[in-house]
Amino acid sequence: MHISEGVLSAPELGVGALLTVVGLGIGLRRMDYERLPEVAILSSVFFVASLIHVPIGPSAAHLVLTGLCGTLLGWMAFPAIFVGLSLQAILFGFGGVTTLGINTFNMAFPAVILGMLLRHFLNSSNYKFRIAVEFVAGSGSILISGLLVALCLVIALGQSMRAAAQVVVLAHVPVMIIEGLITVFVIEFIRKVRPEML
Amino acid sequence: MKEKIPSKKIKIVGLIKLTVFIFCLSSFVDTSMVFAHKVNVFAFVQGNSLVVEGYFSGKSRARDCLVKVFDSSGTMILECKTDSQGTCVFDLGNISPDIKSVKVSLEAEMGHKAEYTVELKDQGSNLSKAASNESKMEDPAPTTGNDNKDQARDIPLNPDALIQTFNAMMDKKLDPLYKMLGNQEKLLLEQSMAGPKMTEIIGGIGWIVGIAGIAAFFMSKKRKSTR
User: Cβ of B117 under 8 Å from any chain A Cβ?
Assistant: First the structure.
């Protein structure tokens, strides 16, 4: 998910940075004093989740949890993810400082859009439907983020969209399932302990 | 309407089935490439070859990645794809002896890219000479008195040829040292690629708490002024 430096062209990086600035502006305007700890906690969750690798079978993957951030924070997911990505870039060299804009947009935008679309259904009385919505919020964000990354690479490197999307979808399937399940568990847990957050 | 909650037994069986399903699925899909944070490349000269090794963070090998070798002017001189071990070997015999250093670039899927510069002036050129003289200097280490006499007879008296032979002999002797130094560098690289340590992760959380604290400070000031 972290696009490295030197891969994308300057216009792409510029557009990514601009879109992220817009997202950050909306997110910061909506952030109030009461919700600041929630944003900080989810930023920490995002920062830590994507650093701990979980072995699955012969391979390994890590969580991203952008779907959870988008569902719980809405537009405030932009500053939360931006802070997490900035620290990863500065402290560990993941991604890069110049790609911070495009990386933030690729991860935060799908989460925000899906969160906004699905948030209304989170309090549905139909248990199975609610679980399905939570699962889609978690796994869908990964899928759309991956497709956005593929699109960036198609524009920058001239790869075919079909090949790039195939790599993304195939490789992300196990992680999409895990991410969806964790989002379901976390939201259901929050429903029990802090239902006012939903 | 009361929600239908499945029994504990069904839930556990379901979870086990799901875990097995994800495990099987991941056996067919390699997620290391897309979920690695960054790719690293290491290259060294071995004999008359340039060996390039690619790793993702977490030490998994960068398989089937495009490796390009550029000279100092930025012209691509060699290209290949890494094998199942994340390795790519180039023959340095075909490149110009004027090239003193090369830049190795490894491109992985999903926008991962890394570069590494290798100096050829101290290793490659001399080693290529060593390789060319290999027929003369088979194995200088375990020699007997008679062998030494035979070798001494083989050494030409021409000063240039003598220097060349001497260099070749030195390179042959120093070859294990080159490899050892290369391995040391590789070990250091692997250490740095092992991923962030727990202390660094906690440090990062500390940064987030600090940033939230600063934001809270300014927001509280704003709240006071609006009251």
Answer: no
Is A58's CB within 8 Å of B212's CB? no
Between A167-176, B26-35, B65-74, the lowest mean confidence (pLDDT) is in: B26-35
Work out the average pLDDT over A143-170: 78
B177 to each of A161, B49, B174, B181, how far by Cα in Å? 47, 16, 5, 6
Contact B27 A174 (CB under 8 A): no
Kindly provide the ipTM of the predicted complex, given to two decimals.
0.70
| Cα–Cα distance for residue pair A170/A63, rounded to 1 Å | 16
pTM: 0.66
- Environment class of residue B87 by beta-carbon count within 10 Å: exposed (0-12), middle (13-18) or buried (19+)? middle
Q: Is B64 exposed, middle or buried (0-12, 13-18, 19+ CB in 10 A)?
A: middle
Q: Which residue has the tokens 């929630």?
A: A38
CA-based nearest residue to A82, from A59, A62, A66, A58 = A66
DSSP secondary structure code for residue A35 in this structure: G
Chain-chain contact of A4 with B211 (C-beta, under 8 angstroms): no
pLDDT tens sequence across A100-139: 899 899 999 999 999 889 888 888 888 888 899 999 999 9
Query: What separation in angstroms does the CA of A14 have from each of A8, A9, A94, A106, A184?
Result: 10, 9, 19, 14, 35
Mind telling me how many Å the CA of A115 is from chain B's nearest CA? 23
Decide if A172 contacts B31 (C-beta within 8 A): yes
